[in-house]
Each structure stands twice: as C-alpha cells, then as structure tokens.
Amino acid sequence: MTQSFKKIPIKVIPATPPDTQVEMETVALYASAKKVYPRWVTGRFTQWRWFWLVATQLFFYGVPWLNLHDRQLLLFDLVHRKFYIFGFVFLPQDFVYLTALMLMSALGLFVWTSIGGRLWCGYSCPQTVYTEIFLWVEKWVEGDRLKRMKLDSGPMDLRRLRIKYTKHAIWIAISLWTGFTFVGYFTPIHVLSAKVLSFTAGSWEVFWILFYGFATYGNAGWMREQVCKYMCPYARFQSAMFDPDTLIISYDAERGEPRGSRRREEDYKAEGKGDCIDCTLCVQVCPVGIDIRDGLQYECIACGACIDACDSIMDKMGYERGLVRYTTENALAHRYPESEIANHVLRPRVIMYSALLLIVVGIVAWSLIVKVPLAVNIARDRNTLVRETDDGMLENIYRMQIENTDEKAHRYVVKATGLTDMVVLVDGGEMIDIPANSASQVSIRVDVDPQNATRGAKKIYFTVQSTDDMRIKDTEKASFIGR
Q: Who contacts 44 (Cβ-Cβ below 8 Å, separation ≥6)?
C-alpha cells in the first residue's frame, strides 16, 4: 500500500540576538470590576418597575403575618414536617407537588422569555428588586450619580464616614428584616418575633436570619450587577429561548446613526446626523453599566431604564420617541411593521411551552381538587409476628398512624379486607377521633381463623374512612403472617 504525505510549510523564526532587549507584555486574565453609578431616572417603565417592586415586597413581607384557620397562611413547618400553603396542608409524601411547582416555574419562565425576553429580570427578580431598593437608599443618603462619584473620589473625612455609615446602617436594617421575614416562613413569625424580642431564638434561627441578611446585604449592596453577569445561570442560557420575534430592548441604529451632539434648533438632518445626540444618558442610567447602542448583550436585564432616559431626551429635543424601545429583531429589520408584533406571539416554541405548562397546571389542579385530607401509615409490630389467641384464632398486631390534614376534626373507622372472616380490634374503641391538623397512633389487632390463614404472608388491605364525610378515606396495603 502506497502512502502519500502532505508537505507542511515550516516557518523559521530567527533567534533573538543576545544583546537585543525584548519587551514583555503583561496580559490580565481577569478584569477588575468597575463600580457602576446608575443615574436616577423617571418614566413609564420606571413606574412599572416600582409597581412590581411594591407588589412583590408587600407579598414577601406581608404574607407571613396573615392567618387562616388560626394558622399562618403560608408556613413551611420543617420541625413537624407539615407545609401549610393557602389552606392546603402538605406532608413529606406530597413531595411530588414541589416537583410540579418547580416544573411549572421553569415552563412559565420559558414561555415568558420566549415572548417578552428578560422582563422577569428587569421587574420581579429578587436581585433586581433589592438592588433597586438599595440604590434608592443610596441616592437618598448620598445623592444622585455625580454626587456619589464625587463622594467616593474625595478624602475619607468625617462627613464621608458619617454618610457611608448612615447608608450601610439602613442597608443592614433592611437586610436583617429581610432575613427575619425569610425565617418567618419556616418558624411561625409571631413565635419568632417573640423569641427575637426576648433574645431566646434558637441557634439555627439566628444563623439563617444572619445568613440570609448577609446574602441580601452582599448581593444588593456590593455585588449588584456582578450577580447578574457572572453568577446567574439564566443570563447564560436565555439566548436558547430567544428568536427573532422575541421582545427585546433595542437601539434603532438606522434612525440614530450617525450620532452626534447638536443644538436643539439645528437642522441635524441636513448635516447628515441621526436622532442620537450622543448624550450617553442611556449608559448612565443602566444598572449593569452597558451601552445599549452596542446591540443586544447578555448582561441586559430589560429593565427599560434606557428607554425612559432616551424618551426624556427625545421630548426635550422635540424628536419622536422610540429611538430606544421594546421591539423584535424582525420588526427592527422591517420584515413586518411594529404594529404587527402582537400577531407573531403565537409561534411553535411558545405554543409548545404553553401546552406543556397548561398540562402540568391542569394535572396539579385536578390533583388538589380530589386530594383527600387524610394520610395513613401502617406497619406490623416487629416484636410479635403472629400469635394464637385463647379462642384458637391467629392474630397479627399492627401500628397505624392516622393523620388528619383537614382544617376540622373527624371521626374515623378502620376496616380490613383480603382474608375471609377477618376481625379487626382497635385499641381504645372502634371510633378514632382526631382533631384538625393532628395525628394519632393506634394499635390494631387482626384475628383470622387458622383455616383461612395458611403459612406465609398474605396481602390484606386496611381502609380508614371518616364517618362524617364518606369521601375522606384511604386504603393501605399490609401483610398478614399465618402458620
């Protein structure tokens, strides 16, 4: 077999003479983070951001203080392994609902991202919300953008220390209150507040208050946009859900370029200039410090601050609004007019995500409707497998735990099936009374004629049923040991 070889050209680099001085270039592997000083802006999208900020925080801070049936409306009681969620009581065996909740959240995010881009990040994400709160405190204490920059570049005198300590004291107070509220979802908040005020809170409660408070203080006060850029995975995989019909914030370069400063009464079009006056206000108000005029960037959280800033300049100059606006890639490329953006919402990926979301929501809703507020666990007594009674019957003993997850008390009766002529004896009486959201453990004896219980294990079924509501019943499988 003949093999052919390809000639590869080799470039010979001459050696550097010994007396020649070589300049070495240092390349930085990591760029130092430059502090972003967002300028305060007002406008319709800023109002929307504050609306969602107030709405989300009223929910977060307010819900733990609301009660239903003399119990916290939303409480994840890990100690007693019960989860009270808007009138429903879930037990550890209901873990499937947590899986369904996570699946619905993911699918909902997919649907929303495919339609509206990163609107979740810009308006409702906790990182964005708390950063906005902390920025408002910073502006209130230190002043707007130029004053903050001047303060940070000035000497560390008593005035600067006083202002900085005031700002951080307010930040820490907000963070600790946030940590306290977070723990209030796991420990009843009225009990927790009494413990905190009397300095009797447990070590784990104190730890999580401080930990969550520290996370809020660090993320919203110090790291800010660095969390969105480098820590949040959503910023990295969001592009997989984008398509040319996804709503994004864009700079209309066709209209704005070439940019340049000018006087208001100047005929800029005669000079060949676009609508952008290069004021950089869109950059100054950006909370992540990007220039939207450079095109779509993964750091953009779609908060709309640059739109409000640009619209205010367009109003002052007497130009048409919308140089920076919410639009789609196809609309910006004139593949269809912007008035038809809504007609392109229903696309294959949106339909697919929406269909999956509706299916999961439907299954969960149906499951909650038919969910029985009763949980039964049964196990055979390990100390005695089988014994013979005085009247010649074979007897197995079981330990049964009955948990009433309803908001009212119920009376239950226990029956057993699976073998002929079974006799069920419940210690304490035939009827079992269990208060609301409580559990009771009972001992049950099952007697069977030896002729009906041959050697080995036989499957039997216990049915626990409420006497005042025939729909409430649960059946559990067990085994009867004969000989």
A: 308
Helix and strand numbers (H, E) in the chain are: 15, 14
Inter-residue contact 262 to 277 (CB < 8 Å): yes
**Helix intervals (H) in 217-270:** 225-226, 234-237, 253-256
CA atoms within 13 A on the CB side of 365: 7
SS3 10: coil
Helix or strand holding residue 456 (H, E): strand 456-466
For residue 258, say if its preceding peptide bond is cis, omega within 30 degrees of 0: yes
> What are the Cα distances from residue 129, in Å, to 44, 303, 353, 382, 401?
17, 11, 27, 55, 45
Reduce the secondary structure of 360-391 to three states and give it as a string: HHHHHHHHHHHCCCEEEEEEECCCCCCEECCC
- What is residue 4's predicted lDDT score, i.e. its pLDDT? 47
The confidence score (pLDDT) of residue 92 equals 85
What is the per-residue pLDDT for 246?
93
pTM for this model (two decimals): 0.82
Structure-block tokens of residue 116: 């509206």
Outline where 257-304 has alpha helix (H): 281-284
Report helix, strand or coil for 424: strand
Rg, Å, the chain Cα set = 34
- Which residue blocks in 293-347 are alpha helix, DSSP H? 305-317, 329-332
What's the CA dihedral at 225, 229, 231, 232 to 10 degrees?
100
Query: Order of strands across the sheet with 456-466?
Result: 431-434, 410-417, 456-466, 473-482
Give the distance, in angstroms, between the CA of residue 178 and the centroid of all CA atoms in the same chain: 16
C-alpha distances (whole Å) from 336 to each of 66, 321, 332, 344 are 50, 20, 8, 10
Distance between CA atoms of 186 and 195, rounded to whole angstroms? 14
The single-letter code of the amino acid at 114 is S
Q: Which are the contacts of 30, defined by CB distance < 8 A and separation ≥ 6?
A: none
CA distance 462 to 453: 17
Domains of the chain, first to last: 34-371 (no CATH), 374-482 (2.60.40.10)
| Beta carbons of 482 and 397 less than 8 angstroms apart | no
* Alpha-carbon span 243 to 181, nearest angstrom: 39
With contact defined as beta carbons under 8 Å apart, do 282 and 309 qualify?
A: yes
Report how far apart, in Å, the C-alpha atoms of 238 and of each of 20, 122, 246, 305 are. 52, 14, 11, 20
Residues 6+ apart with CB under 8 A from 118: 234, 238, 300, 301, 302
- The stretches in the chain having pLDDT less than 50 are 1-6
| Cα gap 38→32, rounded to integer Å | 18
